[in-house]
Design goal:
about 20% strand; elongated; 2 domains; alpha+beta; N-terminal domain of MutM-like DNA repair proteins; about 30% helix; Helicase, Ruva Protein, domain 3; 10 strands; four-stranded antiparallel β-sheet
Length: about 260
């Protein structure tokens, strides 16, 4: 599943390519979870200019000239492609055709990538927003005995972080993923917030440097810990992989708070 840095890179490139274009037609092919009727979506967005593309949590938002927003959640396997004229990409969910003959398609072979018209505002802060800083996380962590990695993955607490980057962030902050959240001292919560911002922003830079035009897929080869090709951390510690519904990559150098 694409995570925050991937989506940041996608939004950067999609905004650069598509902002200012006018929607001629929207084709809804397989949007099972669309929150409005196909006709409502078409009536709302067709004829509008796309003002900008940006990221919110784990979604991409396309904002149009009348203020309407089309949210795109890629889920596990959703991909975006640009095309000219007719879309030839398989497994389309929704197609946006612009007046200049270009287009954008969301695809998913599982058919579960999800478009939403004017998505509801989320209560939890984005991982890179000021609202998700030290004061907020301190308050939230004090209320839970859940391990810290699970908290970072909970989109109802903080939005945008997924499995791979949770491992990278916790290693960067020198916190064991199995630490009990309400046992973290204040200075480590400050370290955690710094690591969230450092790891996620640096990852976006790395993705765009190696794949400057990227709008789909995942780039993970620069990761220090959550990387199946690496056996040791940059500090020389052996990387341990705990199997489960989600794999957790960590090292013994990370401090456990329990």
């Amino acid at each position: 599943m694409p995570e925050l840095p991937d989506l940041q890179a996608f939004s950067h490139n999609l905004d650069k390519k598509l902002a200012g274009k006018t929607v001629k037609q929207i084709a809804v092919i397989n949007a099972k979870k669309l929150n409005v009727s196909h006709q409502k979506l078409q009536d709302t967005l067709e004829g509008q200019k796309l003002n900008k593309v940006y990221r919110e949590g784990k979604e991409l938002y396309l904002k149009f000239s009348k203020g309407d927003i089309l949210g795109l959640h890629l889920m596990l396997h959703g991909k975006l492609f640009l095309f000219e004229g007719k879309n030839e990409n398989k497994y389309p969910i929704i197609e946006l055709h612009f007046t200049d003959g270009s287009g954008l398609v969301l695809t998913d072979f599982q058919g579960i990538a999800n478009p939403t018209l004017n998505p509801e505002e989320k209560e939890s802060p984005d991982a890179l927003s000021k609202d998700g800083g030290v004061e907020y996380l301190t308050t939230r962590l004090q209320k839970t005995k859940t391990n810290i990695k699970t908290v970072l993955l909970d989109q109802k607490i903080i939005r945008g972080i997924g499995n791979a980057y949770a491992d990278e962030i916790l290693w960067h902050a020198n916190i064991s993923p199995f630490s009990i959240s309400n046992k973290l001292p204040g200075d480590k919560i400050k370290d955690l917030v710094k690591s969230i911002h450092a790891v996620l922003t640096e990852a976006e830079r790395a993705i765009l440097k190696s794949n400057p035009d990227i709008i789909n897929g995942e780039v993970r080869d620069f990761m220090h810990i959550h990387n199946s090709k690496k056996t040791h951390s940059p500090k020389g510690e052996k990387i341990i992989v705990k199997e489960g519904s989600r794999k957790t990559y960590y090292t013994e150098e990370q401090e456990l708070y329990s």
